[in-house]
Amino acid sequence: MRSTKLVACATLPVASVASVALATLVALVACGGPRKHTSTGEGSSAIQGGTEDEVHTFAVAVIMPESTCSGTLIAPNLVLTARHCVADSGNSDEVDCARDRFSAPAPASRFSVTTAKVVRGSTARYRVAKIVVPSESKFCGNDIALLQLTDNVPASEATPATPALDPPMTSHPLYGTTVATLGYGISGPKKTDDGTRRLREDVPIQCTPGDPEKSCRLSDFDITPTEFVAGDGLCSGDSGGSAFDQESFTRGRPVTFGVLSRASETGFKCIDAVFTRTDAFAGLLVAAATEAAEQGGYPLPVWAGGAGSADAGAEGGPAAPPTVEAASPPGAACATGSAGRGPSGAAPATLVAVLACVAAARRRRR
Question: Are 270 and 7 in contact, with CB atoms under 8 Å apart?
Fold first, then answer.
């Protein structure tokens, strides 16, 4: 018998991690049905089993005065992260895919970004000028956001990663089925060592809708077609951090498949991390990259349709973008639009049955 605890995939105030953990409500849940998750939230956890990382400065921390999330630099002034790091998503503790919806993002002026390995004491912080999110407000499947910075991060400080757009992450053998993960947070459910960038490699992808090599029923993990599930070790505070194709990461040309949205927790272990797919939001990313390049005064990245020869193993070409919502001015609500939907159609998969579990359901919030 395994006791399962649902962990928040939103960020937590750094100073309040221990108190929130102690205050967690414990409830009995049946484990024979779909997996349940909580958001991996506001800046309170680090990659479990990971090692401290000083090298991969494209993996950044997204900072508010009282909390921290993770993110990925995908252009000199553009950061990919989780939407729940910048917008409220409801009042309940447990993520409910049928009910939970996002409100408008918080003012962009509340956020800053750093490439530093350790958040505390870091002085090189970049202010956020604009927040871009999908127009669809449902939490599950739309937990993705882009932050346009007021200034470019110098190439000497960080080389941006590439989001997988077209070809999609299900294109094999171009992409594999293991990922490297980076994030700022605690190294386990009961730890308080958040705020340091950590790396964990060779994490297996468990479920990708529409991928014959990792087929699954959406109900098995309580996910949507625009999400995928990858292994263990990601907890709250790692929210917004990326899952990078392991081969491209090893070659030094990292391709991100998506951003951490939520996960589950069993006692002392974080499991079943759910990511929102970048290839499901090609139009959103390309539109944001186009505007960011104009504001930053640099050529449009190849992955967004810019000129140049791309390494097929590390750069995705421009996708036919769906109609998406463009963001409004800093701190304002986004304009009306229709969100792009991603790959769908999953083949059945069988999970190991778990007889019963004791779960503490919570969503960690700012």
Answer: yes
